[in-house]
Amino acid sequence: MAIRTPSHPVPSTLKTSMADWASTTANAEAMGAYRRQAIGAEAATTSRTVHHAGSRTSSASPRPVPTRWAMSPMIVTAPASSESAANGWSRNHRTTADLSTSSTLPTTTAALVHPGVDVPYAARLMDCPSCAAPLPEGARFCPACGHSMTSASSEERRVVTVLFADVVGFTALAEHRDPEQVKRLVEAAFSRLGDDITRFGGRVDKVLGDAVIALFGAPVAHEDDAERAVRSGLRMHETIGQFVHEVPGLDAVRLRIGINTGEVLVGTLTGTDYTAMGDVVNTAARLQTLAPPGGVLVGDATRALCSDAIVFDRPEATQLRGRERVEQAWLATGVRSTGTRRWRSVAGRYVGRTVERSLLRSVTELTRAGRSGLVSITGEAGIGKSRLVDEALAEFRAATPEAIVLEGACSPYGDSNVWAPISTGVASHYGLERGQTGDEIRQLAVDNAETVFGVSPDAPGARQELEALLHLLGHPSELDRLDPAGARDVLFGTVIAGLRRRAEVGPIVVWIDDLQWAHALLIDLLQVIARSTVGLPVLIVTASRPVDDSRPVAERWPTVVDRGMTVQLPLEPLGEGESFELVDEITAGRTSTELRQRIFERSGGNPLFLTELALLSLDATGTAGTDVDHELPGTLRALIAARLDQLPPDERTVIDNAAIVGSEGPMSALEEFARQMRQTFDFGMVDALAAGGLLEVDDSWWRFRSDVVREVAYQTLTKQARAQRHAGVARVMERDTDVPIDRLAHHTATAAELLNELGSVPGVDPSVQPRAIELLARAAQRSYDLGGHRHGVQLARRALALASTDPAERRPLLLLLADGLVEARALDEARVDLEEVLATATEAGDRTAEGEALRLLGTVSQLDGDLVTARERLGRAVETFREIDDSARLALALRSRGYAEVLGGSLQDAEWYLGEADGIYADLGDDRGRAWVAQHRSWVSFLAGDNAEAEDRLTRAIATFEQLGDHSGAAWSRGLLAFVMYFERRFAEADRLADEVLLEARQWGDEWAASMMLTLLANLRLWTGRFAEAASFAEKALDGFRTTGDRFGMLQAMSPLNRARVALGRTNAAERGLEEILSVSDSFGGLAFPSIATSGVAMHLGHGRRAIDLAREAIDRMAITGSSIDDARVQLALGHLQVGAPDDALAALEGLDVPSSPFALGVRSLVLTALGDLDAAIADVDLVSELTNPSYFDLCLATAAGAAASTRLDAPDATERVERAAAMAASTGDVALAGFLRAVVELLDRPEATVPPADPRRERPLADGWRFVAELITGTVG
Q1: Which helix (H) or strand (E) holds 241?
Q2: Distances from the Cα of 346 to the Cαs of 349, 589, 623, 653, in angstroms?
Q3: What is the pLDDT of residues 481-540, one digit of tens each?
């Protein structure tokens, strides 16, 4: 039997662990059949399409109505039927065979929506919400049913502060006075109190007997409504006190006031005037009943919005009637005065951020000098991230004319073209206009290739670069013919090539704003750019708000770049001095010290808050106000609401429409929206909004200056209005095949979700719900195909939340969700969903769903290490698809079943299952499926010890993948080939190929694949004696596997990591690592690689007895699978020698092809020396150096044996061999083996050999095992 070692002790660790991983990712493509049929056949045929907005001609001139809904300048819809690239070297990729099923999602519309197809769930935007009849322009009532059109439009959702005041002592007053007198007194008192309310900007909502209700923030909001209400309440007490003093006999009359803040619905009820409805009003009334006479009791929400100018007593925990939880109530007692200071006015310059600007200047200077870098700026909305970068880049551009800046920003709802933030800057750099077609760009590339694109149109690869550019810009291209992973590979490679070429001319800055909204694929591309441009003058600058862990940017950005410059720059609010300067800059120094102080206190130093507050402090003539208490806002929402309420009605309508559309879009979108709503629209309105700082306008494109503005405008709309408008927008979008599925799904699903919440909405048909489910499922599938599993899971969950409790409706959605959960390693949640599917599918006789659930459950069990259950469930899946005669799914299940056998089962059975799958793929004419079978079968050959057959199978698989244009499949096969080369001791080839695949894996954004290559590189560094590098690579791999929650991968990385720790003298860490491997592997049952990995660590540490036990365990487990056990037997032999049993050690080596393995030769030379067969030992020693690439470990063992055997033989070269051992002890760097070699030299006691001194910083006591071996081979035992 041939030994399969690459001249180091533990290759089986990687072989076996990789085999374990060969089946861990066998599920992604398997969902294609059931899912695609279930979520609509159109998902498999959607083509990539684009639409562009026309350019603006005049800010005020009318334009033709667009024929399509131009939602973005570059709209992309990727083919949903393409294979996805994902985790696992043995990925069970979906094949091209037709995967039909009997299970479908319930739908009420055609699967494909073409232009002109009507969709029943959404009335036209200005149809009557009651009867859906068309309305004449400007109609106040429906001519068909008489429904009022004014009440609905007056409804709004607003954050208001409600003041509830009640007169105390009124009953006693009424008891002893004439009713008319009482009425006159109450009217007089309430007239004064009403003046106090209106003076502070409030509105008397209603008078209820002896109580008054006032609203602050509706119908017009102020920036500080909560504080205005409290100040009004305090003034009302003063007023009622003055009134009581003026009117005899009213001494007992006082007020109780309760104030609360929150969201309400404001509008008109039937038969009533404008009023507010919501729990906020009830809470204010309850606070009033608890307030002491003469007191103002304030709710916690109101207190939070007040400035420090309001004095409050300590809060009390209060149980309000009808409330489950305890509320905090604050008693307002007065208003404190503020001091004054004088400040010099500063104008015409950027204010503050001196340190941050200096840092960015240094970074850009390094970029100018040729360094690559990454700057990640984070901070809250409005903190000044974008302005800081713009200032720094303006300075950089001025000093570096040869530099270019590729600038873009991310959309909060996700662009249909995920590359839009990059493509925007690229288009600008090439001078492309938003409305240019793909054909126009092609012609431009041909006519101006060298001057514009920097490459000859006839140059190799020029065509591919053009197609990648079109793909990046969202146009149809030849990349559409590739699977998503393949297209992504080409795109990433082309972007990198273009950046490298342009970097030869001058520095490049990639500047992406609002990265918190970035799609995971954009993060992947940025990571690839960062890692692939090290050493080039390429600077990536991003700005992001703080985000939660569910977003890709939180988990993966900024990336860590080896040898690159990474700067993380969190921005804090401005200090008082800088804030004062900024206010003076905005107001040209026309603000008082008191106003500046109050603006600073209210803003908290947020530059956006400061800017908006300073602008609001100016009156129509540009003069700063002096009524500080009335002019200052409490929160950003209140601030923006106040700004919005100041707009003319037509501009406010534009803002509201834009809020529904999204954060940005073409001008034609606003024009079309207004046309659908039968509203007046003029481009001058948009220009006015831009001049007011609410929108930014770039020719034919608009964007909210701050998304907070959009959010406030959107939140002001009632949920009914939102539902109607989202449904209407979706209806228009349905008629345009250019609209991407994710945007259509968003609007449709939002309408459905609001409908569910409200119960019914006039004009929104209940059929919107099944349509939303269908679109969300299709969007989730598309996200999976692009590798965006986390985003896909979110979409699938959203669809599932809309679904009914009908198991038939839930099954395909649960399978869709589980597919993404398995890829995201959320196995517990996936298992729960799949068990539900299995139970209901079995009961309903849905065999397809049953088979898919079984296959995915088998994958979950496999990932959990429960191989018995995995094989049982995968076997049932095979039988299910066999019984229903579903050939394509049967082939996929057979592949999964075969890999379960590779994973600790029988290699013979694995070959049989894969062989049957190959036959089915041949009958189906599926070359890609056959290529994946060949790749998978190479594992069987590899683990069985037939490297030549493994390489042959991989070579054939790679050729097929490349012929099909499947770059992902070719890359996965090359990754496995790198490991084959490593085990054949072709270290240089393996290292080169591993580096190539690592780069590609990072380009795909595949953390698992990258970690696998890092693990391979760690082993390559380890066995060539570069221990610190090995530990570094292994730690990075371990971090990557931990990020993906992959325990198999963790075990793989921990093996070279702990061997490197032993070599570096980190004995305690290595021993803890050994225990960690065993702990992590507990759930994996009978897998062999944890045993062989820990046996190697124990052997290296010199713990012979433990090495023996673990090696025997590994041998027993590997014998069951049919894998080669040669490496484990060599480790067993060395373990026996470490416990003083050389005869047992020799027996362990019997039958092995020792001369082919440097490791086995090194161990046997020690064993033969210990047994006294010195000439045979010398022969083995000399053979080690003759073999290709022996590891440092092999050479150390053989050198020690050669020194001992030659000395005991008194051979002529004994002195030379002993000196060689002494020199190796000094140079090896492996603390354990250096100690062993020193012990051998010392025990041989040859005066001419100098024993090297140990490094006192790394020296460790020699382990008993190595001491035994030294004594045995030197003949000094006992």
Answers
A1: helix 225-246
A2: 8, 7, 17, 37
A3: 878 778 888 888 888 888 888 888 899 999 998 888 788 888 888 988 988 888 899 999
Residue (of 21, 8, 16) closest to 1124 by Cα position: 16
Per-residue three-class SS string for 512-533: EECHHHCCHHHHHHHHHHHHHC
Average pLDDT over residues 1127-1146: 92
Range in 307-311, 526-530, 765-769 with the lowest mean pLDDT: 307-311
Amino acid 211: pLDDT: 86
Whether residue 617 contacts residue 630, with contact meaning beta carbons closer than 8 Å, is answered with no
For residues 124 and 309, which has the higher predicted lDDT (pLDDT)?
309
The pLDDT of residue 625 is: 52
- Among 521, 489, 404, 505, smallest CA distance to 454 is for 505
Is residue 378 within 8 A of residue 346, CB to CB? The reply is no
Q: If you average pLDDT over every residue of the chain, what do you get?
A: 77
Question: Does CATH number 3.30.70.1230 belong to domain 156-335?
Answer: yes
Helix-, strand-, coil-residue percentages of the chain, each rounded to 5: 60, 10, 35
CB atoms within 10 A of CB 759: 6
Listed by start position, the domains of the chain span: 156-335, 354-570, 576-646, 1153-1278
**Class of the 354-570 domain?**
alpha beta
H-helix or E-strand containing 698?
strand 695-698
What is d(CA 664, CA 71) in angstroms, rounded to the nearest whole number?
9
Cα 1011 → chain centroid = 18
pLDDT, tens digit, for every residue of 1229-1255? 899 999 999 999 999 887 777 776 766
- The answer to whether residues 704 and 710 touch, using CB atoms and an 8 Å cutoff, is yes
Distance CA 355, CA 576 (A): 16
The DSSP bridge partners found for residue 263 are 159
755 by DSSP, 3-state: which? helix
In the block, which residue shows the tokens 């008397």?
Answer: 204
Q: 450: which DSSP letter?
A: I
Burial of 407 (0-12, 13-18, 19+ CB in 10 A): buried
> pTM of the full predicted structure?
0.57
Buried b (16+ CB within 10 A) or exposed e, 301-312: bbbebbbebbeb
Write out the H or E segment, with its range, that includes residue 576.
Answer: helix 576-587
Give the bridge partners for 335, in sequence order: 310
In order, the DSSP letters of 432-480 are --TT--HHHHHHHHHHSIIIIISS-TTSTTHHHHHHHHHHHHT---GGG
Q: Sorting pLDDT into bands at 50, 70 and 90, what band is 1004?
A: low
Question: CB-based contacts of 581: which residues, under 8 Å, 6+ apart?
Answer: 343, 346, 351, 352
Residues 6+ apart with CB under 8 A from 1009: 87, 89, 972, 975, 997, 1001
